[in-house]
Amino acid sequence: MNNPTWDLSIFYNGFDDPALRADIDSIKPLLKKPEEIIESDLPVVAKLEAIVDYDNELSNTIGNIMSFVHLTIAADNANTEALRIQDELGLQMVEVKLASSRIARYLSTIENLDEVIASSEKLSAVAFALKEDAENAQHMVPAHMEKELLRMSLNGADAWSKLKDRLMGTLTCEMNGKSYPLPAIRGMAYDPDPAVRKAAYEAELESYKKVETSMAYCLGCIKGETMTLCELKGYSDPLTMTLAQNRMDHETLDAMWTAIREALPDFRRYMRRKAELLGHKNGLPFYDLFAPMGESSKTYTIDEARELLVKTFTAINPEMGAFIDNAFEQRWIDVYPREGKSGGAFCSGNYQKNVSRILTNFMGSFSDVCTLAHELGHGWHNRCMQRKPQMLTHYPMPLAETASIFNEELLTHEVRKHADEATKLTLLESVLQDATQTIVDIYSRFLFESAVFEARKTHIPSAQECNQMMLDAQMQAYGDGMDPDVRNSGMWVCKGHYYYTGRHFYNFPYAFGHLFALGVYNKYQEEGAAFLPKYDELLASCGSDTIPNVTMTVGIDVRSVDYWRGALKVLRDEVEEFLRLTETK
Ligand SMILES: [Zn+2]
After folding, report:
1. pLDDT tens digits, residue range 240-267?
2. How far is the CA of 248 from the centre of ligand 1 (A)?
3. For site-directed labelling of 57, which of 219, 268, 303, 503 has its Cα 20 to 30 A away?
């Protein structure tokens, strides 16, 4: 690969590009439009059509600016130009939100909204979005307080979130007399050398002490502001609000957790066996959760990863293979960890340009290759959504992980098919490792976040309290699968999801996504290539209806505990296979 950093020039040629300033300056006059349209003498249908046009124009402009600024910051946390524009945009986003609230309130006043929508092709195409907007107007902060509340948030949750980015972006870990960025240290959890894994874990925990007091304030204040807003919007609690935002219901979530709680003993059997194999007597220590197993702890260069991905996905769907190859060729991906770059991995799409950008912290493990497959799945999802009008491309979090995890499934199954016995075991273990994260660890994160919201009713939880809540949540989720003396009290510091200001409980969507993708993958196995067009259509329609309705298009009833049990059985079978392969004779 000639250049392992991403190319953002499709958006702008730099911060001195006049087009960037022109776009930023165009937002303000554009935001006057909704009021003008609503107050005009146009017939209602024409007003709504003009609103749809306005929405597209605004989304395109903001999308381009945001892509450029956010991606720049993700790759370079201290970029002062990007940070300055982010602040400037923050102020404008207040106006953007006010304009969209104005539209939602207007929509909610149209008595014959269904009729109006049905009378126009343009409106019918985005009917779900318009009706949902009108419904959401029932859960808005009072109009007269809205502007000030949004402005206060810039000094509240938004500011805390920025402080968190700053603290974590510059956090270093000291190990053996050397200083490492946190993502590099966390990457060492996959190191074949047990001494490195343990030392990295200790360095990681030690580093959290430098920031945990401030981080606890960031967390407590972001959650506190959310609870105030929740009350103002007329939701009973943050989880109910989150579910509504996700077009999902308690029934669906409860069905999933019920099946997951039943399946926890299966994951623990796997962890205890892995612990034994690594010479531990009391369950798996946290630092060995990601320990590579088996002889063939093969590593990949980025070029080898690219080749494997292109080959695998071309065999399934040539279009998908070409899409992946193009992503590498066109420099969509920022590959390696470095100081000042965000940890983890993500994919960010841009509708107007029909492109995505992917950030990873690639160190060469098979898990890193899976991460690439995962993020490229998001990219494929973004591409499928191009079939729908922009207003229907906002998919809820639990469906956001469908394509990404489906891709991981495809990759691991394909690779396992052609692997020798030793490699098979390694790959199987890697599958279980990942599943343990998306099911068991995610359950611990859900429990932790619930506990933080509970504590925040009375006070801002201190770092010590947060550490203890994290340990308790890990105990409940991992049980005797994990060594009770070697858990990770600082997981709340390093996982950015807890600090999102507009999204909460960004954990259950991963479990949902993983298990839903397994269900979708089962369908693919039953129907073969004939399923792929349905799959693409499923991805395209993720923003076009409620979750239970979207999933029913491929015959999956997410309100049924049995559906989730069926998906989890796939993983239980993998655990049985692992236990069989590792039995001591
Ligand atoms: Zn993802």
Report:
1. 999 999 999 999 999 999 999 999 999 9
2. 19
3. 503
How many residues are given for the chain? 585
Question: Residue 468 falls within a domain, yes or no?
Answer: no
Q: Separation of 571 CA from ligand 1 center, angstroms?
A: 19
Q: State the distance from the centre of ligand 1 to the C-alpha of 346, rounded, in angstroms.
A: 6
**Other Cβ atoms closer than 10 A to 36:** 10
| Distance in Å, CA 429 to ligand 1 centroid | 21
Whole-angstrom distance, CA of residue 371 vs CA of residue 378: 11
Q: Is 26 exposed, middle or buried (0-12, 13-18, 19+ CB in 10 A)?
A: middle
From ligand 1's centre to the CA of 499, what distance in Å?
A: 17
In whole angstroms, what is the distance from residue 443 CA to residue 473 CA? 8
> Which residues lie closer than 8 Å to 503 by C-beta, 6 or more apart?
242, 245, 397, 497
Cα–ligand 1 centroid distance for 374 (angstroms)? 6
Distance of CA 139 to the CA centre of its chain: 25
Identify the band that residue 297 occupies on the pLDDT scale cut at 50, 70 and 90: low
Token pair recorded at residue 61:
């402009």
Question: Domain for residue 539, yes or no?
Answer: no
User: What is the Å distance from ligand 1's center to 496 Cα?
Assistant: 13
- What phi, psi does 386 have (nearest 5°)? -60, -20
Structural domain includes residue 348:
no
Residue 179 three-state SS: strand
Using the mean position of ligand 1's atoms as its centre, give its distance from the Cα of residue 375 in Å: 6
Q: Please list all protein residues whose beta carbon sits less than 5 angstroms from ligand 1, which is an ion.
A: 404
Instruction: Evaluate if residue 584 carries a pLDDT over 80.
Output: no
Residue 521 tokens, joined: 């993958």
Strands 333-334 and 355-359: parallel
Q: What is the biggest distance separating any 2 CA atoms in the chain, rounded to whole angstroms?
A: 84
Q: Decide if 72 is inside a domain.
A: yes
Helix spans in 279-401 (H) = 302-316, 318-329, 366-385, 397-400
| Contacts with 156 (C-beta within 8 Å, 6 or more apart), sequence order | 221, 225
User: Distance from the CA of 373 to the center of ligand 1, in angstroms?
Assistant: 10
Report CA(563)–ligand 1 centroid distance (Å): 22
CA 163, 363, 418: angle at the middle one, nearest 5? 135
Task: Write the CATH number for 59.
Answer: 1.20.140
Give the start-end residues of each E strand in 24-157. Answer: none
Q: How confident is the model at residue 298, as a pLDDT?
A: 77
Cα(505) to ligand 1 centroid in Å equals 15
Residue percentage of the chain with pLDDT more than 70:
99
**pLDDT-based confidence at residue 365 (cuts at 50, 70, 90):** confident
State how many domains the chain has: 1
Q: Mean pLDDT across the stretch 13-38?
A: 97
Asked whether 427 and 416 are in contact (CB, 8 A), the reply is yes
Rounded Cα distance, 234 and 221, in Å: 20
- What's the count of helices (H) and strands (E) in the chain, helices before strands? 26, 5
- 234 pLDDT above the threshold of 60: yes
Question: Residue 47 sits in which domain range?
Answer: 18-154
Distance, CA 370 to ligand 1 centroid (Å)?
A: 11
Which pLDDT tens digit goes with each residue over 484-534? 999 999 999 999 999 999 999 999 999 999 999 999 998 999 999 999 999
pLDDT on residue 295: 67
Q: What per-residue confidence (pLDDT) applies to 344?
A: 87
